[in-house]
Recover the amino acids of this structure.
């Protein structure tokens, strides 16, 4: 009997320790800071008041549906002459999704799609910048962290403009992510043609980055 | 319709097939009417636990492969498998002791201790990615309340399963789980609703086979995988989706409604009425959970 009690007390102690460990507060994950390269490309931060994140999804195989994410952050280290040391890091708040319907937003935030409570941020950190096919176009490879799953993907980016403005030096960027939802195990998306939501969803970030250094 | 068919096949037909197969094999192995009462009871109790546990795990895996375990919902099949083992242990104990033996009273031994560990471990692991963002005190308090609700529901359902081990309680819990599936789906988490549907399909199979074959298709041990699976779904609905907390609590405590039957049973002049209340009270609690979810559902957009 005393052995059982000791075993019980030990197990309860272990359970309490596990709970306390799990419950220890941790700071919210910041946008990962891109490392500085030897040629020191210029540093930029996303001007979220002059930027948009739009998603495009296929619905029932019939129409294209567009919605937005309203909260996001981004940082960029960039130089046309030093792509090897250019880095982009983006972070989108999953619960800021807006599809013009409160009911649908609730569904999109649920574990059926974004699982926003459990995985509040969708992040992308580049590992490689390469020149694209056209002028000012780039193929950026990096790690997308979505729903707790990390996958390496390559996204297409365009430098839409740059210059000195009354608000400092800015660079315009448009990044297009094409995300295969089945890679991230979204329950309501399947490989079958009868999937209610198309397997591929595009996430487009377009906006201005302000030069900071 | 072709959109729904794969979901129905994986989430309803597959669990029905698995539950039916396990229960019928269990009946066969128990020796049917020719076996000794004790032997028959033990095998049927084990088969009942395995039927619900395996049917759920099969349905879940077909609807969405849970490995590698990344998010909370992926953890349910693992937890149900652990509960299944505990259920087999409890089912054995239940088959040795007769109804009303008191083996399900809280604090009555090692079995109760294992329930506390599993319920506490379930609430912690299922919500681990959520509680790590909260302050320690708040997280421990939340987990303690959830664990307490799970244990109260577990004890109530277990005692009722011992009192009425036949198909009637399985049918009652099927009704509760179906209404719970509706409440969760109303609260914008269709996947959790589908998973609740898997449990309802398995329980419905147990009820039908129990009635048709006259076998014990729901035992005290079956409550372990039932409570673990449904608690995860109601928790997930409330904390990861938009299920009102009141609905989740009502669903979690719905098995306690069957206690009314035990209380009213002592009034010997009204046994029939008490039996009905034992069935109706859990269903009314689940219905109330649905009504709350309906009232508090997100407003529809007038443009759609």
């Amino acid at each position: 009997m005393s052995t059982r009690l000791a075993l019980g007390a030990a197990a309860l102690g272990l359970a309490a320790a596990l709970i306390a460990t799990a419950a220890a507060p941790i700071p919210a994950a910041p946008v990962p800071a891109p490392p500085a390269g030897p040629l020191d490309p210029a540093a930029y931060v996303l001007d979220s008041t002059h930027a948009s994140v739009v998603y495009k999804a296929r619905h029932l195989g019939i129409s294209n549906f567009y919605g937005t994410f309203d909260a996001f952050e981004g940082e960029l280290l960039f130089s046309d002459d030093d792509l090897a040391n250019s880095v982009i890091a983006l972070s989108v708040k999953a619960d800021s999704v807006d599809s013009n319907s409160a009911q649908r937003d609730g569904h999109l935030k649920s574990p059926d799609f974004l699982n926003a409570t459990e995985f509040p941020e969708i992040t992308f950190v580049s590992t490689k910048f390469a020149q694209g096919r056209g002028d000012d176009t780039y193929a950026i490879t990096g790690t997308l962290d979505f729903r707790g799953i990390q996958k390496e993907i390559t996204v297409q980016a365009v430098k839409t403009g740059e210059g000195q403005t009354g608000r400092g030096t800015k660079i315009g960027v448009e990044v297009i992510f094409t995300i295969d939802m089945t890679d991230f195990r979204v329950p309501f998306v399947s490989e079958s043609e009868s999937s209610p939501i198309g397997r591929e969803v595009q996430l487009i970030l377009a906006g201005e980055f302000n030069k900071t250094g | 319709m072709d959109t729904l068919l794969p979901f129905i096949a994986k989430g309803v037909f597959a669990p029905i097939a698995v539950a039916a197969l396990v229960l019928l094999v269990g009946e066969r192995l128990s020796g049917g009417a020719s076996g000794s009462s004790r032997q028959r009871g033990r095998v049927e109790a084990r088969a009942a636990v395995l039927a619900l546990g395996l049917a759920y795990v099969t349905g879940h895996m077909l609807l969405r492969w849970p490995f590698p375990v990344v998010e909370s919902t992926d953890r349910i099949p693992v937890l149900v498998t652990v509960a299944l083992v505990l259920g087999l242990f409890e089912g054995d104990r239940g088959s040795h002791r007769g109804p009303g033996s008191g083996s399900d009273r809280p604090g009555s031994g090692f079995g109760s201790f294992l329930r506390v560990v599993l319920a506490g471990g379930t609430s912690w692991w299922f919500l681990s990615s959520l509680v790590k963002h909260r302050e320690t005190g708040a997280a421990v308090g939340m987990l303690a309340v959830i664990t307490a609700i799970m244990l109260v529901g577990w004890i109530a359902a277990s005692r009722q399963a011992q009192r009425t081990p036949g198909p009637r309680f399985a049918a009652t819990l099927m009704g509760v789980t179906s209404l719970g599936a509706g409440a969760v789906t109303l609260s914008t988490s269709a996947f959790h609703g589908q998973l609740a549907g898997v449990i309802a399909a398995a329980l419905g199979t147990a009820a039908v086979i129990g009635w048709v074959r006259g076998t014990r298709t729901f035992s005290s041990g079956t409550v372990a995988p039932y409570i673990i699976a449904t608690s995860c779904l109601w928790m997930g609905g409330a904390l990861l989706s938009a299920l009102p907390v009141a609905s989740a609590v009502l669903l979690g405590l719905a098995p306690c409604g069957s206690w009314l039957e035990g209380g009213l049973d002592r009034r010997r002049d009204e046994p029939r009425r008490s039996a009905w209340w034992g069935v109706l009270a859990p269903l009314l609690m689940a219905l109330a959970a649905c009504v709350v979810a309906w009232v508090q559902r997100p407003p529809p957009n007038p443009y759609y």
Remarks:
- Residues 5-295 of chain B form one domain.
- Chain B touches chain A through 49 residues (CB under 8 Å).
- Confidence is low (pLDDT under 50) at residues 96-107 of chain B.
